[in-house]
Amino acid sequence: MDNEKLEINRNNLNHRRKRIERIKMFIITFIIIFLLLPTILCLILFSKINSLEKEIKILKVMHDDEYDTYKDSMNSSHKDNIVHAAEKETVNHATQVNDSKEVSNESLDKESKDKDSVDIKKIENNKKVYLTFDDGPSIYTEKILDILNENQIKATFFVIGKTDSYSKAMYQRIVNEGHTLGMHSYSHQYKNIYNSLENFKKDFNQLSDLLYEVTGVRPNLFRFPGGSSNQVSKVDMSQYIRYLNDKNITYFDWNVVNGDATGEKLTSDKLVENVLSGVKNKKVSVVLMHDSPTKLNTVNSLPKLIRELKEQEYNILPIDQDTVSVQHVRAESIK
Ligand SMILES: [Zn+2]
């Protein structure tokens, strides 16, 4: 009898132990499903967000082009550049004023004397504005060139690679009409050119060859898409800069923007206002604008902008070999 009781007790105990085991298993499964799984999911999502953020960064730069992402760097690093520019300018100043005096001595008639006195005034002011247009040729290149022509001023075009006959004609017009033809990469694809130095070299030479074939001129000026201080490049920008330095290519960034690359569409008047406030108190201003199908307001802003700049006695010039370079990352800092 006692034995039987003992057996029953043992069975009961076994049964309870199994139940406890089952509950344990249930709790562990619960923990795995409701605690571990969300954690893993969180980690996956976190890495996803990271890669998306990078993607957004690239898209943002491509969309806003150069303005938004780099205005901070402009505010800080440009001050140095401008100081640097101003130093060089002071040296140039003396020689240029001397030159202009010679010019005025040689002038014979009153008309040219008047003109010279305006020029001398401008040279003495020594405020230089370089208007630059990125991303062309576009449907508006023709119009931009016409406006520059009507106002008898020269500008600088940092072009991309296009092979249709209209674009080729535009490269040619830029050169023929005395503007400066600079390069802005063939593809303008950040993902491509900033993925490896090899890609960049290939892209660079493709554009250089195209422009040489079409115009007979091999440009020696370059503007990095996104600027030399862009945060998109997977390769350290110093490698690209070293490559350009070795090829004797000068790259130009900018220290004034008209704001045509901001997300919001600014009116022509606002674009003019931005440039005028940007060039104020600068001896050398390199103004970033865009020549692209979405920038009609930039085209429309030009006549007023040029008029205002002339009235304020700025010298509007194309970039050339003697132009003081405006660079976010200075070329000579890369050995
Ligand atoms: Zn661009």
TrEMBL record:
Segments passing through the bilayer: 25-46
CDD domains: CE4_SmPgdA_like (cd10944)
UniProt xrefs under InterPro entries: Glyco_hydro/deAcase_b/a-brl, NODB_dom, Polysacc_deacetylase_ArnD
Alphabetized GO MF terms: hydrolase activity, acting on carbon-nitrogen (but not peptide) bonds
Keywords: Membrane, Transmembrane, Transmembrane helix
Biological processes annotated in GO: carbohydrate metabolic process
A matching Pfam family: Polysacc_deac_1
PROSITE patterns per record: NODB
PANTHER family: GLYCOSYL TRANSFERASE-RELATED, POLYSACCHARIDE DEACETYLASE YHEN-RELATED
Protein name (record): Peptidoglycan/xylan/chitin deacetylase (PgdA/CDA1 family)
Protein's organism: Mobilisporobacter senegalensis
